[in-house]
Amino acid sequence: MPSLAPRLLAAGVCFGFADPVTNIIANTLSFRESEPDLSFREPEPDDAKRRKHKRKRKTNVREGVFSKIVAGDSPSPPELRTVAERSLQGLVSFLTSYFRYLPTWDALRYLSLARADLLVAVHLIEEDRCYHRKHKFRVCSPAVKSALKCAVCSAGQTNFAVFLDGCFAVVSHVSSFTNTLSAEGCCCFTVDDISWLSELLATPLKLRKHDEPMKLVRNRFNDPVIDVENVPCHLTEALRGTIMDRVHGHYLKAMSRFPMKDLQSHHHRGLLKAGYCFGPLDLVSNIIVNTLWYGISFSPTEEFEVNMISTLRHVEARSVNGLIAFVLAWFPEISKHQAMIYLLNSNLDVCNTVQMTKPKVCDDSGYMAAAKAASHPNPEAYSEFVSRYFSGVRSRVISLLQGSQVISSAKISEVCTLLAIPTVELSEPVVELTEDAMKRITQYKEEFLSQQSLVRRKVETALRNYKQSKVILGSYYDLGIICGLNDCVGEVTGVFDTKYKYTHNNSMDNNGKKILKPPSQ
C-alpha cells in the first residue's frame, strides 16, 4: 500500500512498548497526517501510451521510500535524517533519560546487544543495576512517560499525545498484533489486515495489571536466562551513580530521625565529617551511630548552628568509597565493577552480606580499609570502636534506634552514653591556623550564611506557593533543615564541569518529615 509510505516516513520509528517490528507498524498506522502528501500516492491509471512507464514509476517510488528509511554510510544532517537514524536517536534518548548516569556510548552498546529492542535493553540495564521489584520498569509511570517524550522529541515526531496513545494501544492489543505477525504463511499484510489493526489501535482497551509488556521481553531475547556478567559494558561510573542515589535516600532517612534542633545545632558536624553509612548495622542506623560516636569522641571547641546543609554529596561519595573498599578487602580477587554489583545485589547491606558469605570475617581489617577509603578523620579510632567495643553495646543501641520516627533527645543522649569509650582517650589533632587562613575561613562562613539565608527564603516561598496551589487546609510547615545536592548554585560553569548552576534540595520540617522537593533553584 504505497499510500502508507508518507506515514511510515513521518512516524514509523522502531521504539515503543513492543518489539521493533510491531512498533514500526503500530506507529505508522497510528499516525494521522495534517495534510495529504501526494508524493507517494498510487499512480492513477494511465492510458495505453503511458502504461509502459508504470512499472518504472513504481520502482522509483519504492526506491525513494527506502532511501528515506535506511541509514547511509555517514550521518545525515538533522533535517534529512532517515527513519532509521531518527529511531536510533529516539532509542538512545529514552535510555539516557530514563536511566540516570547512563552514558550515550553504553546506551548504544546495550541497544546493540538487544538488537534495537527498547524493552530488552531496559531489562538488561535493570539486571545490570540490580533493580528491585518496586523500581522496575512500568509503562504507566511518570518516569517512563517523561523518557518517552524525550525520545519522541529527539526523533522529530510531531505529536507526542498521539504517539503515546498508540504505544498504550499496542500494549492493550499486543497479543493480537503478535498473533497476526506470527501467523503461519503471513509474509506480508493484506489490506484487510491493515484495516483490522488500524481499528484495534483506534479502540485501545483499559490497561490491566497483567498487561505488562516486560513479561514478553525474555521470549524476544532468545536466551531465557540473562547472565549479567556477559553484558559487554562495564558501567563503573554509571553503577556508582546508581549507588550514590540509593545512599542519598538512606541519608535523608537518617537525618529525618534526628531531633531537628539537635541536628541544626551540633549533630550536623559529626554527620558531614564521619557520618558514614558503613558499619555493623543497617545503613540508616550506621549513619546515626557513626555521627553520634564522632560527635562525642571528637567534640568541637565551639558549636555552629545551621539550618541548611549545602550538599550531602561529599559524605555520600566518601561512604560509597568505604563500602567498595570493604567489599574489596574481603574479596580481593574481584574488580571494582564487580564490587559495585555485589553492593547492589546486597542492597548495600555489605557487612551482613559478608557475614553470611564468610562467617566471622567482619574484623577490623575491613573497617580499617573502609575508613581509610572514606577519608575518615581518625580511621584507627573508628576501626577500634566498631570492631572491638561496639559489640558489647550493640543490642541496647539497636533497641533504642528501633522504628522509623524521630528519636527523642533523651534516647539520643542514652545512645551517646553507650557509645562513649571510657578506656580510650581520643583527641582530634589541633591545627594552628595562620592569620590569612583565619580570614579565609571567616569569609567562607559569611558566604555560607548569606547563601543559607537566600536558599531558605526561596524554599519558604516555594512552600507557600505549593500550599496555595494545592489548597491544603489545616497544614502548617515549620521548616527545619534544607539538604542540597550542589553547593555551587549560581556559579558560571564550563561545558565539562560536573558542578551545575542549579540544585535539587530536600526540605524537612521540625518533626523530621520530608515535606517537599522544591523545583530546582
The helix fraction, in percent, is: 40-55%
Identify low-pLDDT runs.
34-42, 223-234, 492-500, 515-521
> Based on DSSP secondary structure assignment, what is the total number of beta strands?
4
Q: What is the number of domains?
A: 3
Total helices: the number is 22
**Class from secondary-structure proportions:** mainly alpha
| Average pLDDT score | 77
Taking the sheet with the most strands, its summary is: 4 strands, mixed
Share in β-strands: under 5%
Principal-axes shape call:
elongated
- How many angstroms separate the termini? 53 Å
**Cα-based radius of gyration, to the nearest Å:** 29 Å
The topology string of helices and strands comes to HHHHHHHHHHHHHHEHHHHHHHHEEE
Spatial strand sequence of the major β-sheet: 1-2-3-4
Organism: Digitaria exilis
InterPro entries: PIR2-like_helical (IPR046527)
Pfam family, one: PIR2-like_helical
Protein name: PIR2-like helical domain-containing protein
Describe this structure in words.
This protein is mainly α. The chain has 3 domains: 177 residues, no CATH class; 185 residues, no CATH class; 81 residues, no CATH class. The chain is 54% helix and 3% strand. It is built from 22 helices and 4 strands. It has a 4-stranded mixed beta sheet, with helices on both faces. Helix 13 packs across helix 14 and helix 15 runs antiparallel to helix 18. The longest helix is centred in the last third of the chain and has 36 residues. The chain is elongated and about 85 Å long. The two termini are 53 Å apart. The relative contact order is 0.08. The C terminus is likely disordered. This is PIR2-like helical domain-containing protein. InterPro entries: PIR2-like_helical (IPR046527).
